[in-house]
Amino acid sequence: MLASVLQRGRHLSVVPLVVFPLPVHMSRVYADANAIRGKSWYEYNKFRIEWSTPERYEIVRRLGGGKYSEVFEGVDTVNSERCVIKVLKPVAGHKIKREIKVLRNLAGAPNCIALLDVVRDPSRLYHSLITEYVENADWSQLYTRLTDADIRHYMFQLLTALDFVHSHGIIHRDVKPANVMIDHQRRELRLIDWGLAEFYHPGVEYHVRVGSRHYKPPELLVGYKRYDYSLDLWSTGCMFAAMIFRKQHFFRGSDNDDQLLKILRVLGTERFDAYLKAYDIPYETDIEELLGSYPARPWTRFITADNAPLASPDALAFVDRLLRFDPRERLTAAEAIAHPYLSTVRVEGLEARGAERLGVCEYEWG
Ligand code: AMP
């Protein structure tokens, strides 16, 4: 290693010792969600897929595309319903199986996109997922006009999706505005794009090159591989902060190092150092700025005349509990749903769902 490479840990003075009853590499919640369901639930490589042929679906227009897929609006010629055709680029077979298995496991999940069919062309080269279509508003426009009530409403829906998904042993790993479809007329949200989703098993080391930069939690940026569901709660916190402070992205780094720097400049280096120490993370960098000392900035510093009605005291208390370095300090999705910030929408939301999940929120707010 270069002599210039320095370890943040060596610069530590006195670090407050936080004692947790659980091993650090284990999720506080739903740690056994896969184990209790058994191998047929999570062993996606062994999963046999019955493919339909493509004639039934017609492409109407292109919606977008990325590294792994091209996405089209389509029509199901059998029932004339609109649908989305996601054509997967020839990617590793196991990745296709994983996405389909996750979507099948999540059939009927609240606020998650529904998988309608899976299609393979006769050459067996192209695989497509047929999902429901959402009349989606462009988020970069929509977020600038969301009211306080809208934000609470959509946060409740997103967290409802995440609590369900996590309770079923799955981490989404790419929560970001582009993957959260909002039909603002119907006030309905759907979480899409399960291509990076993974089954959680305590203690397993996962890839850290997942997610999208502006929504990546600290654990990915420092290369900590034993992460869990709480990864999605950081991303949700970033989305929430962008909404209430009316910014396009709250932490807007130009690369992964700069992303971490943007986070350090808001949350402060004291808490970062304590986090590295608690998890025994040997974080090294030769970037001078990342070795600097930054105080934690109070959330009130981000209030402007424009965002003041959204950045209420309960909204600030909420963002503060989502954007934490230590994943175990972050609210879980169920705890977030139980937070006072969501108390008004919680009653409506649970009533709308027949209150079948009223038992999930046992977190106490002092
Ligand atoms: P993706 O590659 O899955 O992120 O999708 C690319 C784009 O297609 C998204 O950013 C959306 O604009 C659009 N899209 C994807 N899924 C849907 C859907 N179910 N309903 C409407 N639009 C979608």
Describe this structure in words.
The chain is α+β, with helices and mostly antiparallel strands and 366 residues long. It has two domains: 46-132, 2-Layer Sandwich (Phosphorylase Kinase, domain 1), CATH 3.30.200; 139-358, Transferase(Phosphotransferase) domain 1 (Transferase(Phosphotransferase), domain 1). It is 31% helix and 14% strand. It contains twelve helices and eleven strands. It has helices at 33-37, 39-42, 93-105, 139-142, 148-167, 218-221, 230-244, 256-267, 269-278, 313-322, 333-337, 343-352; strands at residues 6-7, 57-65, 69-76, 81-88, 115-120, 127-132, 170-171, 180-183, 188-191, 198-199, 284-285. It has a five-stranded antiparallel β-sheet with strand order 2-3-4-6-5, covered by helices on one side. Strands 1-11 form a two-stranded antiparallel ribbon. Helix 5 packs antiparallel against helix 7 and helix 5 (148-167) packs across helix 12 (343-352). The termini are far apart. Mean pLDDT is 91; it is low at 10-17 and 356-366. Adenosine monophosphate binds at residues 63-64, 66, 69, 71, 84, 86, 113, 131, 133-134, 136, 178-179, 181, 192-193.
